[in-house]
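Friendly challenge for the regulars: who can give me the structure tokens for this chain first? No prize, just bragging rights.
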Amino acid sequence: MQTTRPRPVTIKHVAAEAGVSLQTVSRVINNEPNVRDVVKARVKDAVAKLGYVPNLAARRLGGSRSYLILALNDRDRTVEGWRLGEGTDWVDQMLLGGMLKCAEHGYRMLFELVDTHSEHVEREIFAALSALNPDGVILTPPHSDNPIIIGLLTAQAVPFARIGSVEDGAGFSIAMDDARAAQVATEHLIGLGHRRIGFISGSDEYALSGARVEGYQAAMGAAGLGNDPRLVGRGDFSFDSGLAAAEALCALDDPPTGIIVSNDQMTLATLQVAKARNLAVPEDLSVISFDDTPVVRFSVPPLTAINQPIAAMTARAAELLIQAKSGATEPQPPSIVPFELVVRGSTGPRGG
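First reply, four minutes later:
Bragging rights claimed.
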């Protein structure tokens, strides 16, 4: 018996259900201005009731939009994480926030890897822009502070958002307050009685790395604890760099009783160093991480961590770019998205 394929729901069906014109449905779907809220609600109810899905190809042909947002992530670091099987929760959270926000507005978000160090970085990005013609581009660190990439997008008049960057410049800036986050983490350890507190920074390519060191130093200075340069270990967000930095801190004549680490991989390395030195966490050494990826909840002990609002930052970036394409966004100051210190078992009073 041959079954009859159901006819697809079209924009005409939505217009009839909502009792409005085709043009009104189009304006609501495209998030354009000059539609009354009550009419928007009727159209959205009709879309939901009928299960209408806009045809992206037809929408692109019908106007100046592509209905695509392009997110650019650093190729080397992302591919390395995938190949080593270490996962990239940062990427997962970025896709979660960006894709869901784009879907709300009938957009799609595409994800591309670009080598920020390549001498051909302009060629790579120009090729992506030419092939996809995105309505906006989301830059993640370190791309968000790369002057070559920013200059190219500005010259091409492509709207873009810079995640993790609060530097002055073109594009929308979306970040958490990294300096304040490091300050809060340091104050947490100070409140537990710690006086020798170490800090392992991330790669200097990332503006947020310097901001976090500054926040840590500000908290130490405000508490009258000084700023011993030996207590700042330099990492690059890799596990191996975390091993080296943690080992150097723990080998000091007067080692720290607490260490704040700039990402989860380096923090797991710090736990490994502590175990090798027979340091109990948190009895002998308290540890705080940045990122709060799923793995830290299953470490031993579970890690106290700064939860980065990655999904929220990407969602905000996508929203601003879509609004900009609609002409509904004025110049914006940096968007600062709240962070959270999640206290778990890796921090405790000095001396246990």
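The CA atoms of residues 193 and 350 lie 5 Å apart. The chain is about 45% helix and 15% strand. Your move, everyone else.
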